[in-house]
Amino acid sequence: MKRGPAAYLATIAVVFAVLLPLYYMFSYGRNDSLARTIEQGNGNQGGSTYNAPFSYGGSYLESLVFGILGMVLVFAVFYALFLVMKKRRMRRE
Amino acid sequence: MHIPDGLMDPVVWVVGFVVAVPILFVAFRRLGRETDEDRIPFMAVLAAGIFVAQMLNFPVAGGTTGHLIGAALAVVLVGPVAAMAVLTVVIVIQSLFFGDGGITALGLNLLNMAVVAPLVASLVYGASKRNMKASIFAASWLSVFIAAFATAIELSASFLISGGTFGITPYVALPAMLGYNAVIGVGEGFITVGVWAFISQVAPEITKARREEAPQ
Do B203 and A44 touch (CB under 8 A)? Predict the structure, then answer.
């Protein structure tokens, strides 16, 4: 990577912020393929067995904040996971 | 395509964990052993990018929406084993932190999107690289279509095992999932080819390095 990861994450966040209004204009509140299939087949959704601490939000600003939060979380977890794996490997060697 | 809690028969979702977890465990171990440390930041950025891309549903026919899975994109940029790891982290965080996909269905969601989709994309992409764009488009479309097929089979199996308490009848699950995702796959194909072409322009070393790698 020529630039640091922070620069790439910032670029992704900007692209996300630009595309998010299109999502709200054309897709928000509409079912995806699985939800549509469940609806058509009268499928049973027994409710969630676990309450997640966050959601994707219900407005542009909320979705932007939670999207960026999730993006940073995914980056950090992936990176941390491989740092731990690397340390374990080095200890073994 | 994230399966929620309460939809699948317990036998089916347990099978999802039993099949997906060992495969992903091997993938992570292999990646941890073999991956050049310099590649990790790019993989982490890719995972972050796929997370936000999956939030941006796009409209398809009949008021239905779909989103990028990103398996083919990950395969063409970092290879199938790393793609499995990338999608695993994305799907686990979606489920644990954002409630996108059920906890009990996590094994099935991992199986469909982090195992089946990257494997299919890798097979198709590896089969022909003469026309890169066509190859990437085909890998993207088929990865979505086969992942949707797997989901439809799981829905049908749940219905049949539970006598209709869980899942969806195969007469609805198969045509609906395959029909919608045949269209969503086209969107996935265009997005994947577009992102690949963009990265080829702005950071050709990334796509060039991957093309020169031996197929994993």
Answer: no
Mutation pick from B25, B30, B65 vs chain A, by most beta carbons of A within 10 Å, is B65
Closest residue, chain A, to B58 (C-alpha) = A27
Tokens 């690289």 -> residue: B129
ipTM of this complex: 0.94
Please tell me whether the overall predicted TM-score, pTM, comes out greater than 0.90 for this model. yes
Residue B72 corresponds to which amino acid? A
Q: Position of tokens 């909320």?
A: A62
Distance CA B18, CA B4 (A): 18
DSSP state of A83: H
Residue from A37, A45, A34, A36 nearest B169 by CA: A37
pLDDT in tens, B9-65: 999 999 999 999 999 999 999 998 888 888 899 999 999 999 999 999 999 977 899
Q: How many residues does chain B have?
A: 216
Q: What is the pLDDT of residues B61-115, one digit of tens each?
A: 778 999 999 999 999 999 999 999 999 999 999 999 999 999 999 999 999 999 9
